[in-house]
Amino acid sequence: MFAPLQNDTFLRACLRKPTTHTPVWLMRQAGRYLPEYRETRAKAGSFMGLATNTEYATEVTLQPLERYPLDAAILFSDILTVPDAMGLGLSFQQGEGPRFAYPVRDEAAVQALAVPDMDKLRYVFDAVTSIRRALNGRVPLIGFSGSPWTLACYMVEGAGSDDYRQVKSMLYSRPDLMHRMLQVNADAVALYLNTQIEAGAQAVMIFDSWGGVLADGAFQRFSLDYTRRVVSQLKREQGGERVPVIVFTKGGGLWLRQIAECGADVVGLDWTVNLGEARQRVGASVALQGNLDPNVLFAPPEVVQAEARLVLDSFGRPQRADGGWDGHVFNLGHGISQFTPPERVLDLVQAVHEHSRALRASPAAA
């Protein structure tokens, strides 16, 4: 049993219900920009040492909530845990990012892929339960995974990439192999997220970080179709409560309406999308999440606050003329930079809360 929620604003916004203010959380909010995170990371000895230790993962997930009045926590983990559990040998080199020892680049490697035993990811689910208990109902907990396509990019490239040459070569020359990999990934991601929900996650997010590198047409076939396959398998209720699903495609503004039809409750937007226009395009079908440029946080406090207000003004009053509510979750358009001054985050969160309350109280536009 978990403690009842004291602040459900995030969940209400995801489900397009009335809220007193616009909830805010930040992608990568538990991370290297916080000195306390760096201290815990040093104690853990490595990134995976941090992510696989329940106590440390709980500690760093809660750190930003001790500093800022955020409206949600997000599990501290990595998007590549699923392919690691498939036996690809994940490691993190200092200054280089993630790397797989055994990239998937030929037919034999693709055919050998299978949905992993979730016991290999027990450390993730133990962390979810531990964090949920430690939150004690303060705010909801978000679980997450990489999208099938984004996982495939890392699995084929073996690391991050500038040109996606290996994975796109497979996509165009052997689409059968790519579809086989994406099917396995989608079913693995769905099982992974469902197990997080069973462990205590109150919302889940699918990070399609590299969907935007695909051509129109290819995006639908190789990214969106498999995100839809994941969403269709997800548990949407746990303990009598709706579990919202968020889908975020970086660079996906071109396909906003199609993404909004994938079955998710919330569509995340990067900073290149006009939030007001996005609201008009999706109507009342989904809530929106985003979408401040993360680099705004390097500006002086008054600029951070002004830019936050511009994002909120772009979305407008969440109350609709017909009496309904459109949901907005304030976030960055991508993850927070490790070089961000921690003080600017407080400026941002306070500005979002204050201005969104004022917007709700203002008279409707004529």
Descriptive account of the structure:
With 366 residues, the protein is α/β, with parallel strands linked by helices. The protein has one domain: Alpha-Beta Barrel (TIM Barrel). It has 15 helices and eleven strands. The protein has helices at 9-14, 35-44, 47-51, 54-67, 81-88, 107-111, 122-135, 148-157, 165-173, 175-199, 218-233, 256-260, 275-282, 301-315, 342-361; strands spanning 73-74, 90-93, 97-100, 141-146, 203-208, 237-238, 241-242, 245-249, 266-268, 287-289, 328-329. Strands 1-4-5-8-9-10-11 form a seven-stranded parallel sheet. A two-stranded antiparallel sheet has the order 2-3. Helix 8 packs across helix 10 (175-199). The chain is globular and about 65 Å long. The N and C termini lie far apart (48 Å).
Number of strands: 11
Task: Provide a count of the helices.
Answer: 15
CATH architecture designation: Alpha-Beta Barrel
Which class do the helix and strand fractions yield? alpha/beta
CATH class: Alpha Beta
Which stretches are poorly predicted, pLDDT < 50 over at least 5 residues? none
Biggest sheet descriptor: 7 strands, parallel
Strand content: 5-15%
User: How are the strands ordered across the major sheet?
Assistant: 1-4-5-8-9-10-11
Round the mean pLDDT to the nearest integer and report it: 96
* Rg over alpha carbons: 20 Å
How many structural domains are formed by the residues? 1
What helical percentage do the residues reach?
Answer: 40-55%
N/C terminus separation: 48 Å
The CATH topology assignment is TIM Barrel
* Element-level helix/strand string: HHHHEHEEHHEHHHEHEEEHEHEHEH
How would the global form be characterised? Answer: globular
